[in-house]
Amino acid sequence: MRSPQEEAAHRYAETGWPVFPCVPRSKVPMTKNGFLNASTSHARIEQWWKPASAANVAIATGAPGPDVLDVDVHADGTGYEAFNELKRAGLVPDPKAVIRTPSGGMHHYYPGTSQRNGHIPGRHIDFRGLGGYVVSPPSEVDGKLYKVIAHQPGAGTFDWAAAREHLAPAGPSMRLGMRFPEGPRSVAHLSGWLANQPEGNRNNGLFWAASRAAENGDTATLGELARVAVSLGLPAREVDRTIHSAMRTPRSPFDHAPEKEREMEAG
């Protein structure tokens, strides 16, 4: 019998969303190359989940997967204020699905595009597009489930560039085209790149580099990035939050999720 996680992985794959397993009750990929190994193959999904039925389900974001607006909740603040600002500005179209995350935040799923990952420092709002992934229902982290709150057949796309410009208008350095390294898929070079970032760009640089390391499942590089960031003067708690943020999901693939959620809660 398939576990709820494997059932969900097959439903997402039927929608055309590439999936891969994460360590049970964690956001850490079980595959060697993280989201790069994501697949819609039902045979591959069975191969992954048969020996690890409790593995969490992750979806590779960006077309052909979904784009996801991630509203975070942290001890020092939440993204709901920024989210409401975007709603008042008419920049939040109806999503395909709304997911409550274990922290009390939410994921809004939209049709996938070619937009890439994004992050707005201090506003607790992230965007998961090409080059990223989300952990999805019915996965569990810290003893709490990702839960489907609502879903519907159609939705418009989310314009991350417009949202970012509204919440954090670009300063001169960004308008002049601040560059990040493209580099090879090996991410071991990123700690050296971070060490050379000027003051004022270090936290942004840490998030960018940690995202690349997380996508590749390179925990050694994540640890080295944390060490370098602290040595540059970033507070350890801020470094931990930034890396945690970087590691963070016709017929809808969520059709049966509410029923499964109620069964799990009743049990």
- The percentage of residues in β strands lies in 15-25%
- Element order: H for helix, E for strand: HEHEEEEHEEEEEEEEHHHHHHH
- SS elements, strand count: 13
Give the helix level as a range of percent. 25-40%
Our count of helices gives: 10
The total tally of domains equals 2
Which residue ranges are poorly predicted, with pLDDT under 50 across at least 5 consecutive positions?
Answer: 173-185, 258-267
End-to-end Cα distance, whole Å, is 18 Å
Note the overall shape. globular
- Rg from alpha-carbon coordinates: 18 Å
What's the mean pLDDT score?
84
Strand order of the largest sheet: 8-9-3-7-6-13
The secondary-structure class comes to alpha+beta
The main sheet comes to: 6 strands, antiparallel
Could you describe the 3D structure shown?
The chain is α+β, with helices and mostly antiparallel strands. The chain folds into 2 domains: 4-167 and 249-266, no CATH class; 181-245. The chain contains 10 helices and 13 strands. The protein has a 6-stranded antiparallel sheet with strand order 8-9-3-7-6-13. Strand 4 (73-74) and strand 5 (77-78) form a beta hairpin. It is globular.
List the helices and strands and how they pair.
Blueprint (H helix, E strand, L loop, with lengths): L3 H12 L3 E4 L19 H8 L6 E5 L6 E5 L1 E2 L2 E2 L1 H9 L8 E4 L5 E5 L7 E3 L4 E4 L4 E4 L3 E2 L2 E2 L1 E5 L8 H8 L4 H4 L14 H6 L6 H14 L3 H13 L4 H12 L9 H10 L1
Antiparallel strand pairs: 1-2, 2-10, 3-7, 3-9, 4-5, 6-7, 6-13, 8-9, 11-12
